[in-house]
Design brief:
By secondary structure, this protein is of the alpha/beta class. Helix content is 57%, strand content 25%.
Length: 220
Amino acid sequence: MENSSHTFESVWAAIQESNRFLTEKQAETDRILRESRTETERILTEQITELKERQAETNRQMAATDRKIAKTERLVKNIGKTLGGMGNSHGDFAEEYFFNAFEDGETNFFGEKFDKISKNLKYQLNGLEDEYDVVMFNHSSVAIVESKYRARKEDLPSVLKKVDTFRILFPHYKNYKIYLGYAAMSFTRDIEQEFEDNGIAVIKQVGDKVIINENKLKTF
């Protein structure tokens, strides 16, 4: 019996020791998990805070960029208006200058005498519309002069087209001879040559005079 009691006590002691060991290990594991969870939460909190700060900074930079873009757009728009106004002013000046020159007596050209002159003649008919800077008339001929401050080769097609639009919009003159002139305060030689080769009179300012080059002029 004594041996049996001793064996029981030994086994019970072993079980108790095992329970104690497991309890300690469980407690240690729980502690480690708590510390690990706390550290993980701390790291996540720091990362989230950092991300929020970066996002806030990005938002501030984007807002600043948007303001700069808006300011740049306003500046560009204002510059465009200013340049457009300057271009219109120069164009109005050239138109007025050449009209006054013709009105003051420079109407004997193209080999003819013109006795009537109109400025900014604009008309619309059946959806077709065109405007003519200077138009001179006599009993059998019409002279259409387009005026610009600076000559541009790109204007050539629209100048040539004015013959057709004028005859449609003003059918009374459909059987009249039509002359074309292109007047500008400033020409380059290649542009001048281009208009001449197409039978258009080149009209320009030289000093205080208006010079008309009609060497290759043709009737339309």
